[in-house]
């Protein structure tokens, strides 16, 4: 796709709104689209993916232009260069749209939200990737019905980055599954299924403990502190390790 060689209309063909100040409309077939509508028409699940897709196409078109230029097909080289320029404008347009969304996003508990919430928090210098990553985590929490539990665990451990938040959400999900399987096991009439559910519950409990250990290792660098105590025994004396029962009945170390 190449950009039209004449001035675009004043408003987007799709939403009928003018483009944001500083932006322009881009042509897609017979349409002139604003950044928001262009993003909607671009393949990808989120704006980050959409922008990367356009970047890939830009690089591909530039490569085709170079190959055409080298083989002497000057006209084809010009067409590919024009397509690369269009994709470059699309990347800039989609990123600009994403940055505007990021600046206007509401942050709740360190997670992006589209409506007012509780326990308000802020992200430091939120950008497009951080916002969309946060929204993805939020959708996963909601889809698994662990939003409150996941956020509470993240707050409890003081999750300071994306990795720690993911671990907190994994703890919440594993805990939920463990409790649900244990509850279903108590109502099972089939002993074999009861055992399977209890085993699944036990595995999830073990997973919770493993995630907690992983979090501890991440925060401590995987190091262990070993305390060494030196006991000096004089000549004729004896060293005893462990608890010693005295005549008064009290244990002494």
What keyword list fits this structure?
7 helices; 253 residues; two-stranded antiparallel sheet; elongated; 2 domains; mainly alpha
Structure description:
It is built from seven helices and six strands, in the order E-E-H-H-H-E-E-H-H-H-H-E-E. The chain is mainly alpha-helical and 253 residues long. Strand 3 (106-108) and strand 4 (111-113) form a beta hairpin.
Could you outline the blueprint of secondary structure elements for this entry?
Elements: E1 26-28, E2 31-33, H1 35-41, H2 47-70, H3 74-104, E3 106-108, E4 111-113, H4 128-143, H5 147-157, H6 162-186, H7 191-220, E5 244-245, E6 251-252
Antiparallel strand pairs: 1-2, 3-4, 5-6
Residue-averaged pLDDT, rounded? 80
Category by helix and strand content: mainly alpha
Unreliable spans are: 115-122
| Secondary-structure element series | EEHHHEEHHHHEE
């Amino acid at each position: 796709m190449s950009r039209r060689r004449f001035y675009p209309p004043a408003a987007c063909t799709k939403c009928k709104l003018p483009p944001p100040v500083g932006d322009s409309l881009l042509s897609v077939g017979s349409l002139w689209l604003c950044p928001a509508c262009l993003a909607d028409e671009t393949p990808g699940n989120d704006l980050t993916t959409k922008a990367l897709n356009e970047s890939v196409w830009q690089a591909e078109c530039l490569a085709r232009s170079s190959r055409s230029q080298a083989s002497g097909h000057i006209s084809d080289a010009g067409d590919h260069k024009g397509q690369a320029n269009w994709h470059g404008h699309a990347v800039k347009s989609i990123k600009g749209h994403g940055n505007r969304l990021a600046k206007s996003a509401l942050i709740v508990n360190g997670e992006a939200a589209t409506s007012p919430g509780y326990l308000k928090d802020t992200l430091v210098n939120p950008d497009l990737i951080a916002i969309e990553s946060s929204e993805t985590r939020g959708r996963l929490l909601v889809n698994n019905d662990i939003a409150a539990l996941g956020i509470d665990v993240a707050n409890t451990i003081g999750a300071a980055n994306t990795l720690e938040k993911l671990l907190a959400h994994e703890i919440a999900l594993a805990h939920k599954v463990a409790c649900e399987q244990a509850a279903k096991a108590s109502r099972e009439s089939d002993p074999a299924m009861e055992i399977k559910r209890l085993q699944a519950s036990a595995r999830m409990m073990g997973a919770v403990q493993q995630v907690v250990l992983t979090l501890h290792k991440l925060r401590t660098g995987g190091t262990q502190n070993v305390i060494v105590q030196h006991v000096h025994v004089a000549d004729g004396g004896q060293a005893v390790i462990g608890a010693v029962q005295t005549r008064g009945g009290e244990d002494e170390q």
